[in-house]
Write a structure and sequence with these properties.
The complex is a heterodimer of chains A (182) and B (186).
Chain A (H helix, E strand, L loop, with lengths): L2 E2 L5 H8 L1 E4 L7 E4 L1 H4 L2 H15 L6 E5 L3 H12 L2 E5 L9 E7 L4 E7 L8 E9 L3 H12 L3 E10 L14 E6 L2
Parallel strand pairs in A: 1-10, 4-5, 4-8, 8-9, 9-10
Antiparallel strand pairs in A: 2-3, 6-7
Helix pairs in contact in A: 1-3, 3-4
Chain B lengths: L11 H9 L1 E4 L7 E4 L1 H4 L2 H15 L6 E5 L7 H8 L2 E5 L9 E7 L4 E7 L8 E9 L3 H12 L3 E10 L8 E2 L2 E7 L4
Parallel strand pairs in B: 3-4, 3-7, 7-8, 8-10
Antiparallel strand pairs in B: 1-2, 5-6, 9-10
The chains are: A alpha/beta (182), B alpha/beta (186).
Chain lengths: 182, 186
């Protein structure tokens, strides 16, 4: 169900390009920076290819990307598999009618929004973000898609932080990641 | 310059792209006819055509860097970078990029904002493209040009899907060529 690509030779190249920035955005957090992967055309292409190979025969009609780093990986995947790209955004960024889903942060809460009509009932959806930590944002994303009647086939991230157990917050939905961070 | 005046006159893809853009009146405030590209990126044919037109234009220009302006520029720039084998550089609002950054201020209608770029990502001699969904006053793009030039890159061109009336008739912005696919819909 949930899986990680450990044996593909392209994974090493991707993992070695991820930069860890200590104490960002606050003390104690080891930030997993994917911008360094994007600087290596080979590693960036391999990242997208690994997702495309997995999803191209799964009849995915929607790729939903979470603002803002999900916008970097989601559209190339959508384009390659012939699916719609749907941005899931912070409040008040999307024009027109939206549905919103609140989720908990460490302190307080935040919201994710999706356009009404972006997704139709029974569409098959993929949710994409650069990283899964606690799983709160991904969970909100899945809820938005399910409220619109879509089936969330899988969540896909470049990086997982296993210690934060985000995988367990996905209500049994499968999670596919390329790299686990230490 | 618009694509239709620059080699793509009568190209049916341009009409498809224009038709796929949704206009939302009075967003974010009264009087603004907001050009919404989310309907473009959720139309696989029109989205692919958009990227193909940019890729066809830039693939033989020796572009080594494609910079995308947060956040809607992120929906277009990476696909272009991947297709032409260039680095993708995100240009972001303050405080989002970890590690060392440089920043440039630019004017908003009321007040100022800043755009940031990572230090060490772009070299002297890199040939850069800057991508955003839309150009209006050109303030954001001008800040993006300044960031790239500060680190020694040559900005070859700025490219946007939509060009608003403020830039109509202009072929250049901040001293650099400006390329746009379509005008705003009414």
């Amino acid at each position: 169900m949930s899986s990680c690509k450990e044996d593909d030779p392209r994974i090493d190249g991707i993992q070695s390009r991820i930069r860890v920035v200590p104490n960002f955005p606050k003390p104690g957090i080891m930030f997993q920076d994917i911008t360094t992967v994007l600087l290596d055309p080979r590693a960036f292409k391999d990242t997208i290819d690994l997702f495309v190979e997995r999803y191209k025969s799964k009849n995915i009609t929607v790729v939903a990307g979470i603002e803002a780093r999900g916008f970097i990986f989601g559209p190339p995947i959508a384009l390659a598999i012939g699916a719609k790209f749907v941005p899931l955004r912070k409040p008040k960024k999307l024009p027109g009618k939206v549905i919103r889903e609140e989720y908990d942060l460490e302190y307080g809460s935040d919201c994710l929004e999706m356009h009404v009509g972006a997704v139709e009932p029974e569409e098959r959806a993929l949710v994409v973000d650069d990283l899964i930590a606690t799983g709160g944002t991904l969970c909100a994303a899945m809820n938005l898609l399910e409220r619109a009647g879509a089936e969330v086939v899988e969540c896909a991230c470049v990086i997982e932080i296993p210690d934060l157990k985000g995988r367990d917050r996905l209500n049994g939905k499968p999670l596919f990641v390329l790299v686990e961070s230490q | 310059m618009f694509a239709a005046e620059n080699g793509l006159k009568g190209d049916p893809r341009l009409k498809g792209i224009s038709d796929a853009i949704r206009v939302v009146p009075h967003f974010p405030k009264p009087g603004i006819m907001f050009q919404d590209i989310t309907t473009l990126v959720s139309n696989p044919r029109a989205f692919k055509d958009t990227i193909d037109i940019f890729v066809d234009r830039y693939r033989d220009m020796d572009i080594s860097v494609v910079a995308g302006v947060e956040a809607r520029g992120f929906m277009f720039a990476p696909a272009i970078a991947l297709a032409i084998g260039a680095k993708f550089i995100p240009l972001r609002k303050p405080g989002k990029l970890p590690g060392e950054v440089i920043s440039e201020a630019y004017e908003l209608e009321y007040g100022k904002d800043r755009l940031e770029m990572h230090v060490g990502t772009v070299q002297h001699g890199d040939r850069a493209l800057i991508i955003d969904d839309l150009v209006a006053t050109g303030g954001t793009l001008s800040a993006a040009i300044r960031l790239l030039e500060r680190v020694g890159a040559e900005v070859v061109e700025c490219a946007c899907v939509i060009g608003l009336p403020e830039v109509k008739g202009r072929c250049r912005l901040g001293g650099k060529p400006l390329y746009m696919l379509v005008e705003p819909r009414q």
